[in-house]
Amino acid sequence: MPIHSHGLPLAFIPSPSVNGFHLGPLFIHVYGLMYVVGIAAAIYITRRRWRALGGNPDLVSDVAIWAVPAGIIGGRIYFDITTPADIPPHWWGFLAVWSGGLGIWGGIAGGAAAGIWRVKRAGADAGLFANAIAPALLVAQAVGRIGNYFNQELFGKPSTLPWALEISPAHRPAGYTQFATFQPSFLYEIIFDLALAAFLVWLGHHRGIKPWGLFALYVTGYSAFRIFEETIRIDSSERFLGLRLNFYVATVVTLVGIAWFIRAQRARAVTAGGPRSAGSPAATALTEHGDATNGSGPAADSGKSSADQTDSSEHSAGQDGADQAGADQAGAEQAGAEQDRAEQDRADQAGAGQDRADQHP
Questions:
Q1: Residue 297: exposed, middle, or buried by beta-carbon count in 10 A (0-12, 13-18, 19+)?
Q2: Residues 47, 52, 56, 61, Cα dihedral to 10°
Q3: DSSP secondary structure letter of residue 3
């Protein structure tokens, strides 16, 4: 064990001596097992978040069936392109995901493409779904990094820090065989992923984040961390101008993520009074409960209908009263006219009688 110059032993994080276990005739790689656990956790978290938005949680399972294989394929393709030196020297080496080797950006791209297709096919809002899944992806990535620990990979530069990681000689890269302990960069990523996931959940509950906003922050935050991580990692990588290829990729993706978030927040959104997708949870919620900003929805329509009925009843009652008054007035005028005619007839009869009297004295 490494020791201080004054002879006191240092406490380091030991690496596991095995990277899997036998289950009957099968050998279970911890790396693959951790990905399964991470995917299951992501599905569980996303189902809860999507249900809270008013969506159908079964959509999450449907998306996972397509997005998970697409993500693995995309991640492996990215790894094979960017780190060809790490491909096992077998005809099937480019497929050997069980031995490690999934590029996160390729995985996100492949999984996102398949996921967006399934969400839109179901008639739901892809931006809202992306916000629901963003923290879950970070949790899945954190769990997956535990597999890197068992594979003794993704560590950083030599270090004598108390939390430095012991790496067995067989896993030390060329040029570093004389060092025994290294920066546990995978552990830094686990801590960062979980912290960013918690922050995104908090932000979504306390701030008006529009569709795609949380997902854009996930892309931005993770890529920004990778800028730092790429400066301490020493595993094999293609380089350009002395820097690792993924350093440039992380920088570009970080800038794209920032621009994406700004655009998402400025755009008219499903929940911000703009166009609403008929299949989105927010649109459904607004349809069911009414929109307080413009008085729409069944609740508002019901209120309007009640008010209209009240006004109609009052108007009808007033009209009936007016009609009755008019009828009474008409009746009075008719009675007066008949009385005048009767009096005129009596006067005419009296006049006629007087004339006859004058003619026959």
A1: middle
A2: -10
A3: B
Backbone angles phi, psi at 162, to 5 degrees: -60, -25
What is the pTM (predicted TM-score) of this model? 0.71
The one-letter amino acid code at 100 reads G
- CB neighbours of 122 closer than 8 A, spacing ≥ 6? 56, 59, 62, 279
- Rounded to the nearest angstrom, the gap between the alpha carbon of residue 65 and the centroid of all alpha carbons in its chain is 18
Helical H segments across the chain, by residue range: 30-52, 58-82, 104-121, 126-151, 185-206, 213-229, 245-266, 281-289, 298-359
CB within 8 A of 146, min separation 6: which ones? 30, 34, 190
Per the listing, tokens 């800038």 go with 255
What are the tens digits of pLDDT across the range 90-128?
766 667 766 667 788 888 999 999 999 999 999 999 999
Looking at this protein, which amino acid is placed at residue 35?
A: Y
Q: How many CA atoms lie within 13 A of 208 on its CB side?
A: 9
Cβ(76)–Cβ(105) below 8 Å: no
**CA-CA distance, 333 to 329, in Å (whole number)?**
6
State how far the alpha carbon of 196 is from the alpha carbons of 215, 223, 253, in Å. 12, 12, 17
Tokens of 347: 């006067």
Q: What is the DSSP letter of 163?
A: T
